[in-house]
Write a structure and sequence with these properties.
The protein is of the alpha/beta class. Helix content is about 35%, strand content about 30%.
Length: about 500
């Protein structure tokens, strides 16, 4: 800490001296002012880094095309350090579909999460059925409060319908009440069904993002809306998880607490700023907010020590002469340091490439490992997008997307001799057969009706057979793709 005395102007000294003389005449005791103290800001611990890579160092000249850029955010492993305090709100589905083992496992998981919290953390529980209920208002964790919290959690019961919007709204209010400016603020949402009303979800996710509260969304079983829950997590910088068996909820909660304990950077925001003649098409598996200068901004939540996060940015560029230098993009990562309290920090990377019309030079400039990673991300993004289209009733568009993505993944698998890509291609084929379960229910085939001239025709053609395991196929395909796109 550095102490210094503020410099005072001669005029100010003269006026102060006159005031002191006047006060002495009145018999008023004057104390000297406290010295001005400046607190030294902690130095950047340099735990977080940002880097870029291209699948080809050279780009074909005189062509309009798409360029994909991999951005990697890295967090170093810490040798020691105290974790930031945690403000976590559990928002738990307690509708009738949770009756039995599911609600029992959810209660046990909530108790496990409480046991993992430390003194000084903030914790709340909200349940939702036909209405939302604040079971445990935001409370500071200590020995006494843990016992009371446990008793309230034990009263959790399943009944009614699924007011997920009301539950999330109440959860965000509790997150605001317990907000920790120097800590990690998180809502953990668990649901096994489709909400009564989805219309409020976009505004609630925007509210959470504005509050800098990430939502970890957990889909339980085979009936929830995976697209809705994943979007809540993506738009707030949180994580999405699929839990097929309610017995695994406790372990996921425990992993979530461990993840919170290892946070080294909070409120990551990535701004992508395109160069001249460049258009940002998007980031695979992520949604962002447009910026005024044709850019895009993504909220990425928190970053744990010893982890990395890869993002694949899609850029469109116009034709350029041979040997031209392409100014593709500036990427700016802003975040709050959670290691030594260094405050708001920033990382920047400038992405550029050079054009060539020489086929041999273009081939020699390839980076196969980056190409392989991008091919996997493209297959995963196609999986997530196809499911979202089917959820919206656009089965034909979803099938078209898969019909394009599957052979591309298979060709990449052959090119790189990659078993994972082969599995992704096979998974897209299986997913295509399962997608009809997400759209409107097909009409049953009707009996043949007589037509003019004695010709008979079916009013409705019989729908193709849908595999019995289709709901599980959709959920598992979506979960695998999201897990990889989230960098897990």
């Amino acid at each position: 800490m550095i102490a210094r005395t503020a410099k005072l102007s001669p005029l100010f000294l003269a006026l102060s001296l006159a005031a002191l003389v006047g006060c002495k005449k009145e018999g008023i005791e004057i104390k000297p002012p406290d010295p001005v103290v400046a607190v030294a800001r902690a130095a950047d611990p340099e735990v977080v880094s940002l880097a870029s890579a291209l699948p080809q160092k050279l780009v074909a000249a005189d062509k309009v095309g798409e360029i994909r850029v991999r951005l990697r955010i890295d967090a170093a492993k810490l040798k020691h350090g105290k974790r930031p305090p945690i403000n976590v709100v559990l928002v738990m589905d307690s509708s009738g579909s949770m009756e039995g083992k599911a609600i029992e496992d959810a209660r046990a998981a909530a108790l496990t999460l409480v046991d993992g919290l430390a003194e000084g953390d903030h914790f709340a529980v909200v349940t939702f059925d036909s209405l939302a209920h604040v079971l445990v208002p935001s409370t500071t964790i200590d020995a006494a409060s843990k016992g009371s919290i446990r008793e309230h959690i034990k009263t959790m019961a399943a009944r009614g319908t699924t007011d997920l919007a009301g539950g999330l709204s109440a959860g965000l209010a509790e997150a605001q009440r317990g907000y920790l400016g120097n800590g990690v603020n998180r809502v953990v949402l668990l649901s096994d069904g489709v909400p009564n009303d989805e219309s409020m979800m976009p505004s609630l996710s925007q509210q959470a993002a504005a509050m800098r509260v990430s939502i970890t969304a957990l889909g339980l079983g085979l009936e929830y809306n995976e697209t809705l829950l994943a979007s809540l997590a993506q738009q707030t910088g949180g994580k999405f998880h699929f839990i097929e068996d309610s017995a695994k909820v406790a372990s996921v909660f425990a992993d979530e607490v461990l993840r919170l304990e290892r946070v080294v950077a909070q409120n990551l925001a990535l701004s992508l700023l395109p160069g001249p003649g460049v258009t940002i098409e998007g980031v695979l598996g992520h949604s962002g907010a447009p910026l005024a200068n044709r850019g895009l901004q993504l909220s990425l939540g928190d970053l744990g020590e010893g982890t990395h996060r890869d993002l694949i940015v899609r850029l469109r560029v116009g034709p350029h002469r041979d040997g031209a230098s392409l100014e593709l993009m500036d990427a700016v990562l802003g975040f709050q340091d959670a290691v030594v309290g260094a405050g708001a920090l920033e990382r920047r990377v400038f992405v550029a490439a050079r054009t060539s019309s020489d086929p041999a030079a273009l081939a020699a400039s390839r980076e196969p490992e980056i190409e392989r990673q991008i091919a996997r991300a493209l297959a995963d993004a196609a999986t997530v997008d196809a499911i979202a289209l089917a959820r919206g009733g656009q089965i034909a568009a979803a099938n078209t997307l898969i019909d394009r993505a599957e052979p591309e993944a298979r060709e990449a698998a052959k090119q790189f001799d990659d078993a994972d890509l082969r599995g992704q291609a096979d998974g897209l084929v299986k997913l295509r057969k399962a997608l009809p379960t997400l759209g409107p229910a097909p009409q049953p085939a009707q009996a043949l009706q007589p037509m003019a001239g004695g010709i008979q025709a079916a009013d409705v053609i019989a729908a193709p057979m849908i595999p019995a395991d289709s709901p599980a196929t959709v959920k598992r395909s979506h979960a695998r793709a999201m897990r990889r796109l989230q960098g897990e």
